Each structure stands twice: as C-alpha cells, then as structure tokens.
Amino acid sequence: NAGVTQTPKFRVLKTGxxxxxxxxxxxxxxxxxxxxxxxxxxxRLIHYSVGEGTTAKGEVxxxxxxxxxxxxNFLLGLxxxxxxxTSVYFCASKxxxxxxxxxxxxxxxxxx
Amino acid sequence: AQSVTQLGSHVSVSEGALVLLRCxxxxxxxxxxxxxxxxxxxxxxxxxxxxxGATLVKGINGFEAEFKKxxxxxxxxxxxxxxxxxxxxxxxxxxxxxxxxxxxxxxxGTTLQVKP
Lengths: 112, 116
Known about the structure:
The structure holds 2 protein chains of 2 kinds. Chain A is mostly beta strands. In chain A, 0% of the residues lie in helices and 55% in strands.
C-alpha cells in the first residue's frame, strides 16, 4: 500500500535554483495539499487542490507554484529558491468531507 | 479567522504517568477538531477527531480528547504514558460547513518526552 509518495526525499539547492517536488497518491483522493513544517511553527498550508485542474493558495503561497494536471499527482515548484524556503515539505490527500488527511513522509529541502 | 494554540512546546512525563496536551482554538463557529501524531522522520498520522455528537472522543493507542465549547478547548489525554508515545503532537482545526475544503490549520506542535 503506497498511499502518498513524495519525491525526492532530500534535496540541497543553491539560492536561485529551481526545482519541483512531486506528490503521488494512489487512493483516488480528490483533495491534495502541500504543507511546510518549520520548528515551532507547526505545519503551514502552501497550496491546495480540490480536484484535477484546480489549485488554490494557502497561508504561505509566495515563492511557490503548483499544478494538478492529473488527479493522482500534485506538483510543488520553486522557481527561484531562497534560504527562507529551507524546510520539510509534506504532501497530503483526502476524500471530500470530514475524513482523515493522509500524509506523505516528507521532503527535506535545504537552500544554501 | 481560525487559529489553534497549543500550550507548551515540550511536555515531559514519566512512564505510566498521565499525559495531558493542551489545545485551544479560536473560531467564530465550532470547527472540526483533530489531533495528529508525528514520529521522528515520518509524516503525520490521525489520532482522533471531533466532528459532531459525543464530546469525548476516543482515538488510537489509548488517547482521548474532550471538546469543551465553553472553554474552546480540545485537550488530549492518556491515562498512562508508554515509551512509544514519545513523539510530536499537533492539534488542528478545519472549518465546518459547505465551505469546507478539508484544509487544516495546525497548532505549533507539542513534543512529548517519556522518561523511564
């Protein structure tokens, strides 16, 4: 049972470089989310999607872009990485309604 | 706007002692309430949730939480701590109703240390 899979799990970037984090879920979930986790700040929502082809901004969207071209995939892009984007990124997915949010294992990104 | 406050970033208990992790929320209407646990180098797992009905909610691994509307609280408890309970715990809220998009607002997290 794969659930929610994030790639890559670790990445080191230099300031100004770009990269894409991939999230894939095999549970046929409509809703998908990208969070970042920083010490003492909990998880903060970056962007989310309530269906294929739709995306919306969360609490901290600046510096990130997302795409949901396929229902099972949700991509998070950094066009020009900054040290402030050093964080652990989590993808999550769920069905509509008040159900459980399923999380991936996280992607640790360091921007030098 | 909704917000969640977890009182105490670190809580330390002895094995076998009561665990109490505090969570207060701010919302114009009572939200949906959740507790998640995160073990080292893993994603978050749902412990329990309150949506409607009985205000005392039981979750996995012997944890429970009580929704108290008058106190805007949703504290997490476990009668007897086990070493395996050492982890980070997050309280979260989600807006109730037709505008629910499932997005959660998380508290800052509380790290639970269990001493032998």
